[in-house]
Amino acid sequence: MTLERRIARHPYRSLGIPMGVPAYRRWKTDKSPQSKKDASNSLQKSRSATETKSKNGKTPIPGREDRMKLLALPINHRPFFPGYVGATVVKDNRVIAAIEEMVRHKQSLVGLFLVKEENHDLGMMSSLDQVHRIGTLAQITTLFPNQQLMQSKSREGITVVLHSQKRIKIIGLSHPEEEVKQESSSSKLNETASDKQQKPDPEKGSKSFVLDVGKRYGIPMAEIQTVQDAAYDLNDADIHEKSADIVAMFKQIATLNMAFREQLVNLSLSQLSSNLYGNPNRLADFAASLSTAEPWELQKVLEAIQIKKRLQSALSVLRKELTHAKLQVKISKQVDSRITPRQRESYLEEQLKNIQKELGTDTSSQDALLREFKMKAGKLAMPPTVQKVFNEELAKLASLDPAGVEFNMTRNYVDWLTQMPWGQQSVEHYDVKRAKQVLDEDHYGLKDVKDYILEFIAVCRLRKSVQGKIICLVGPPGVGKTSVGKSIARALDRRFYQFSVGGLADVAEIKGHRRTYVGAMPGKVIQALKKVHTENPLILIDEIDKVGAGYQGDPSAALLEVLDPEQNNSFVDYYLDVPVDLSRVMFICTANVVDTIPAPLRDRMEVIELSGYVEEEKMAIAEKYLVPAAKKATGLENLNVNLTKDALSTLITYYSRESGVRSLKKYIEKIFRKAALKVVQEIGEDVSLPNDAASKMLEKVSIEINSHNLKEYIGSATFPTDWMYETTPPGVAMGLIRTNTGGTCVYVEAVLESSLSLKSTPGISKTGHMDAVMQESTDISYTFVKSFMATNYPKNRFFDKARIHLNCPGIAVPKDGPSAGMTMATALLSLALCEPVNPNVAMMGELTVTGKILQVDGFKEKMVAVKRSKASILLFPEENQADWDELPEQMKEGIRGVPVSSYNTVFDICFGSLKQEDGENAWSHLLS
């Protein structure tokens, strides 16, 4: 515990009252002359009464007996010692009111007892177990409001200044519920003959006054008796020795601790009339009063009745005080020893600078820094506006103190100006043939992206000038949007820099921070130019569809200036505050969806959509890129470990049904890791053989992963087969939808909820995790089929009475979009006509209430699902004919595509063999 904290433990110190200040000094603050006179007279009476000895050696209290009942105050911080003035704070409103009434009636004696738990803020005693039994009898001298409580305005409170007089012992506690008569009889002290003849003092009232106060305010009153010091021989050598030790200890501590010295002087002045050093009892109490020891240690001194024991306890307290004072001095010296050499070095360095300045040989680091900045700027082609700002900041830097904060801020700013690539450009090669080769090496497919880059290179070659371009690649995760950016940079021989804006909500990340802020720095775009050291890099801005917005601005709005070819030739970053030309930068942005990109920002970019890969493309990517990379990463590239085509096909179809190849890559890496473990387990202990022997052992290893043993490496299939029905029953048709993982086949099932009769109520219910658009598509299909049946099969009254349940299996997969409208109508008509649909027919298309078939999206992804299924006939909207034509021939192999524009064509293909009479009478046996 530090000295400051130990001194702060004094309640007198915390209240702004010097420790040991006598009562008459405190009363000087009262401006009333009469109050000063009364207070002085009262204190003089109490002192004379304290110092007067009776014949039996006891110290009587004026107007009191050796046993009495009075108000007891719990003390929370440290005990009070006889003969000294102290203060305590009273917060309990009932106790405050009782004290004020007692003072008004000149009943100013109270008992002070230390609580057993130091941190327990006890406002009023309720049990003897809460306090130590030995305390002090004290006289209230002054009351004033507590300043700390007044400032906090938490609750009322008063500070009570008390003059401690003698030791007392609490022997009982009377609660206000007891009878006044019983309290009066139990509170009588052992009266002496002279006391019985004393006349009652009219100013102090009756003896039952204290009990009445306690009963009135609900405060327990303590029954106490005085505690007399044990007799001792003043000439005892041991007592003389301990007293001398205490006095010597005073001198040692006073030389080390200035605060202790001040308190020693103050208390000594207040005890001039009491022969302090000739009275061992008073000397021990004096030592304890000076100490900042723990409350329980001071309580031991207070409870010591034997003089030798009291002196020994006081001496122990002072020894600890001396140890703390020595430790504090030692720590101070150690700190001074560290600070002093540094101060001396600083003084000498300052002198050396002045000498060098007078001689003209100043070679300080500041001048060296200025020369370095000038040398860097000389290698750059700064624009005139930037050069002007640079010169001004450099001149400012030369005049600043290197130890100042502004010097560091200016130095950082000048450093950024000299690290920008002013006029620095990398050499580009506009070779179409080489660019095509690079793009094909890194990526399979992506024809639209590759064509755009080749067109860009051709234009640049013909114009013999370079222009920055802004491209936005949109597609599902894992299709290679980010990696294709690196390939484009390699094809153009441009330096590459990438940063993501997903979740970005601070505009300062794009535009930079103001220089006035601590830790300010430029935005991401300026950081990219500094990193690549060229004005014409390729910067990839990832996840641009996930930009956030908050109270710190809208980053998407800041990107408008960056990505606008008309104004990014003078982009101004908040930190640099000079125009920067971004027109030569080629920006490529990536996004998963276009819908969440703000329209003004989307308008400034050329959007290229990357659809998911089909099975053939995934197979080619796996064989050409993923498998060789995984073998090399696992150390199996030179070993006979093969992943067969049928295993890859199974892996693509049943394990990684996604638009991209990210999941496929993870599965392939897992397979080769398992294979590596198998190789090590087979060669076992022979791994430590010489290189030639180990190579021969590895040559014997042969592992083949095929569709039969694939399960041993990656477990069971994640996705089941799409083929649910070998022969579809009436009411079931196969459709195609696009989900987050790509295209998939979905069966639409329609069944009767209840038996059909003339009393049935028609209706339809829908299940299968259908979203809003698909729900509307269901309603449209239901309306259409009722109209269709009324027109073509008027005698079939199925929809007039049927309660139908329509379901799309796969509840865990959310489904949305209008492309299942044609399939739902077909399933409902199949149930109404009791005619099954050809199981080899798959269909997609949006249906209107008049039977028109409209265009759908995701044609390529849905075609992948058709290839996975056993369907051989695909019905699709006539407006999607162009999408069908663009498909590679290997995708269309084995599938007959039938474009349709109205549902009549679909009906002829699905139910062409149905006779009119059979359709009319399908449910006649139940509805006749």
UniProtKB/TrEMBL annotation:
Biological processes annotated in GO: chaperone-mediated protein complex assembly; mitochondrion organization; protein quality control for misfolded or incompletely synthesized proteins
Ranges for domain Lon proteolytic: 727-913
Alphabetical list of PROSITE patterns matching this protein: LON_N, LON_PROTEOLYTIC, LON_SER
A GO molecular-function annotation: ATP hydrolysis activity
Tagged with keyword Transport: no
Region: Disordered, residue numbers: 23-65, 173-208
EC code(s) of this entry: 3.4.21.-
SMART domains named in the record: AAA (SM00382), LON (SM00464)
Record family assignment: Belongs to the peptidase S16 family.
Protein known as: Lon protease homolog
GN (gene name): PIM1_2
